[in-house]
Amino acid sequence: MSLRRLRAWAVLCLLAALLLYGICFLDTVLAGHSVTDTDPFPYASADAVRYELRGMRYLYQGSLLTGPHLGYPLVLSVLAVNTALLWGARSWGAPVKQMLHVSVAALLVTLGLGWPMLAIAQKQHNTLLSRSPQHGASVRASPAVLHVRQCVKRQTEGPCLHATTLNFPNPTAWGLAGLLLTGLAGLQRRGTHPVRVSRPA
Predict the structure, then answer these.
(1) What is the Cα gyration radius of the chain?
(2) How far is CA 118 from the centre of its chain?
(3) What separation in angstroms does the CA of 60 have from each of 63, 64, 117, 194, 197?
(4) Between 94-107 and 3-28, two packed helices, what is the crossing angle to 10 degrees?
(5) In the chain, how many H helices and how many E strands?
(6) What is the distance between the alpha carbons of residues 55 and 122, in angstroms, rounded to a whole number?
(7) Which pLDDT belongs to residue 197?
């Protein structure tokens, strides 16, 4: 594989990671919140969550409030396609194999560890949200963090006196980091060994 094509592939990985981060950020910036009075539940905040392989959903009184937020399955799909393409091109040389190793590791971590961790986060967040629901909760998400803050003690018609916060990493960020590292692996400079020429005595 020519050096120019390899660098082009690596740069595409970097650009895809940046583009996907922007998409995922916009997708999650209002996750769990209604911001207009035209929604089925005007200005409501989620009281339950579902973090699944098909996307993240935020619920209110058992009905869908926002979602599905598709950043996680989208990043997984891009990682899987890129890994498959690198596997098909593995005979092109060591640089492609190095990118393949990074991409496979990123896919395994993002799916193999990320999916079970989302199940744990869903259970823990829903347990927290079910505590003292009358006091209100704050739900936020980003490509890197899934956040829930539940007020458990509030002054009568006043501010929250005690709250519990629970954050979990969003495995979407792991996939984005893996795609970024795959691109960097393709741009890594490889040393050349100069040819020694013996001079006559």
Answers:
(1) 23
(2) 11
(3) 5, 6, 23, 67, 76
(4) 20
(5) 5, 6
(6) 12
(7) 40
Question: Span 160-184, mean pLDDT?
Answer: 94
109 pLDDT tier (thresholds 50, 70, 90): very high
Q: What is the pLDDT of residues 87-107, one digit of tens each?
A: 998 888 888 999 999 999 999
Q: What six digits make up the tokens of 65?
A: 């409030």
CA distance 11 to 9: 5
Query: Which residues fall within 8 angstroms of residue 8, CB to CB, at 6 or more apart?
Result: none
Length of the chain: 201
Bridge partner residues of 58 (DSSP)? 49, 66
How many CB atoms neighbour CB 115 within 10 A?
15
Dig out the tokens for 99 from the structure: 């990118």
The identity of residue 105, as a single letter, is A
Q: How confident is the model at residue 134 (pLDDT cuts 50, 70, 90)?
A: low
Query: CA 71, 108, 182 angle in degrees (round to 5)?
Result: 75
Tokens of 124: 């823990």
Query: Distance (Å, rounded) from C-alpha 146 to C-alpha 50?
Result: 12
Continuous segment of H or E residues that includes residue 48:
strand 48-52
Residue with tokens 């993240």: 56
